[in-house]
Amino acid sequence: MVAKIGRGTNIYGALLYNHSKVLNNNGEILHLHHMKETADGNYTAMQLLTSFAPYLLANKNTEKTALHISLNPDPNDCISDEDYIKIAEEYMQKLGYGEQPYVVFKHTDIERTHIHIVSTTVDCKGIKIPDSFEKKKSMDICRELETKFNLSPAPEKQLFESSIPVNPINFATGNIKAQIASIVRHLPKYYQFQSLGSYNALLSLFNITSEHIKKEYLGEIKEGLVYFATNENGNKVSNPFKSSLFGKQAGLKELRAHFDKSRANSASAKSSITEVIQQAMQLNSNEMTFKDYLIQHGINTVIRRNEQDRIYGITFIDHNTRNVFNGSQLGKQFSANVFQELFSSHDLKLKQNKIVQPIIINQTNSTNNTTTSDHLHPFFDFMVNLSNIDGFGFLESLLTGTFAEDPEEQAFEYQMKKKRKKRPT
Fold first, then answer.
1. How confident is the model at residue 348, as a pLDDT?
2. Once rounded to an integer, what is the mean pLDDT over residues 155-162?
3. 48, 83, 350, 374: most buried by Cβ count inside 10 Å?
4. DSSP-derived secondary structure letter, 287
5. Residue 345 and residue 179: Cα distance in Å, rounded?
6. What is the pLDDT of residues 169-186, one digit of tens each?
7. Which residue numbers delimit the MobA/VirD2-like nuclease domain (predicted)?
8. CA distances from 121 to 7, 18, 29, 58, 164 (A)
């Protein structure tokens, strides 16, 4: 069994994602622990959120209050709902969250049935629960549960992948060739991508780019691939490295064969990613919160713009199925033009709001101006940054870390934040 632990700023985003599976008959609420229950057994994401309210309101200075864990047994393991509940309870107890409120969801939308646990990282007094050496502790707990419940042990390769971080290129540390090699030698083993553009989108998460080189030599066209390290803005910061330095799997010939293989195996992965992207588009017309929402669901978004700042390309990297898709490959409704219009409409609305309430918006936007970068998925040891969901009332805004539409409510929350900052710790 493999556990993946994610943290974020918004519990509602995690609840909404899991509850959407329930509404679509692709999941169910398996267990509530220290949570408010309803008489008829039916729940909404907002109703579940109220159980976390006292903890979130008591929070003193912890930013990432949301805890989102998935426990993934071997597909061949037959586990009853009762055992799933016992596994979740024992896992949370040993990890240090046994007294916390949490809800256990079972997902059945893919062949591999698994469970998700949503909880909070702060206790009833608003103090952050210690998480030192959490990854090692989690792995040890999983090994104990495998023995106790007679589960198949996770393959050593899978344990290695979930525990060893692969970091973006750091030009300042030197040895760029070795850093690039540690990435490009392994990506084709784990990810499916159908073009050089998709490959470069995936490489961009590691501050790497490749370039197709074509030259004529003795009347014959020679082709090849070179790699560069890039900075956070995507600009090249190193000399070119020939692909032959990293093995044949990093070369153009092998990659083209990989493109063909990826196209043949992409059909099943498309349906799952399109569903999540559609949800993100319905909930978020802002580019930043759209990206955050997808990151919370294990999907990175890479957007390409021209000199006029217009979107001409968009690529989605699904770390769940390990597939990379250009928007156009998923359908016309996911083309670059569609997202250009979606994000532009939000920017226009924002400008109009600034004209009406310039002072209020400048005050409250201090929370929303945090720069969002395309971090790596938990597979590569990154921390999930849950999305911000707009459009609810003041209580929900306070709980989820977003702001209400009413300017008076925004001003009130701003004053509350000022008081909190002045309060001695």
1. 63
2. 50
3. 48
4. H
5. 41
6. 877 777 888 888 888 888
7. 45-151
8. 8, 18, 21, 12, 24
Confidence of residue 81 (pLDDT cuts 50, 70, 90): very high
DSSP assignment letter at 51: G
Q: Judge whether residue 391 has pLDDT over 70.
A: no
Q: What DSSP string runs through 353-412? A: HHHH-HHHHHHHTTTTTPPP-----GGGT----PPP--S--HHHHHHHT---S-HHHHHH
Q: Kindly report the three-state secondary structure assignment for every residue of 154-207.
A: CCHHHHHHHHCCCCCCCHHHCCHHHHHHHHHCCHHHHCECCCHHHHHHHHHCCC
Which residues are CB-contacts of 271 (< 8 A; sequence separation ≥ 6)?
Answer: none
Tokens encoding 224: 């090849």
Q: What is the DSSP string of 82-129?
A: HHHHHHHHHHHHHHT-TTS-EEEEEE-SSSS-EEEEEEESB-TTSPBP
List, for residues 197-236, the tens digit of each pLDDT value: 999 999 998 899 999 998 887 788 889 999 999 988 888 9
Question: Can you name the residues that pair with 221 across neighbouring β-strands?
Answer: 216
Tokens of 4: 């993946």
Which pLDDT belongs to residue 186? 80
Instruction: Tokens for 102, please give them.
Output: 């949490």
| Residue 63 confidence (pLDDT) above 90 | no
408: how many CB neighbours lie within 10 A of its CB?
Answer: 10
